[in-house]
Amino acid sequence: MSTDWHPSPNFGPRRDGARPDLVMIHYTAMRSAEGARDWLCAETSGVSAHYLIAENGRCWQLVEEEARAWHAGAGAWGEVTDVNSRSIGIELANGGGQPFAAPQMAVLEDLLAGIMSRWGIPPAGVIGHSDSALGRKIDPGPRFDWRRLARRGLAIWPAMAAAGDFEAAARRFGYRAEAEQGEALLAAFRMRFRPWASGPLDDTDRGLMADLAARWPGPRI
Known about the structure:
two-stranded antiparallel ribbon, 12% strand
C-alpha cells in the first residue's frame, strides 16, 4: 500500500517518553473523506489522527507515528488515561450507518500489520474509540468488522467462558466505567463483540467478557 503525506499542524510530543502500544480506530462521520482530511488538518479544529483511509482505499498520513496526534480525547483504557500519548489513531471515512468498503478494509489491514510490526503492538492493543469513551463515542460502530481483523491476527475475538461478574471482568479487560455507566458499558461491549444484540445483560455477555479479561487484561501505566 502507499500513503499520501498531508501534514496536520495538530500534534505534539508524546508525554513522559511514551511509545505507542495501542492503535485506536475511528470513523469520520463526515460527508467525504476529503472533508474529513481538511478538518483534521485545520489548525482551528484542534483534532488530528495519524492516518485517514478513504472508502476507495486512498490513505493519507497526517501525523508522524512518533508524534502525539489529537484523536482520543479524554478517554481511558486500562490504566492509561493519556491515550493520545500511547496510541496511533486511524480514521476511516464512513458516516456510521453503512458497511465499511472492501478497498478501505484491505488497506486498513495492510496499515495495521505495518504499525503493529514497527511498534510491537499485540492484537489486543487494537481498540475502538467507543472502547475508551463510554457513553461519549460510538465509532467505529456496529458495522465495523472486528471479527475479520481478529481472523487475520490484527485484533482479538472472545470465546465463551464461564459467566462471572460482568463489570469486574470489564475493568480487568480495560473498560473504565463509573458506577452509573452500566448501560454505556454494556452498549460499548456489544457494539464491538455482539453487534445487534439487545435486551438486558445476559450470561452470553458475562461469559464473553470473562474470556476477554482472562486472556487480555488491559494495559498498565
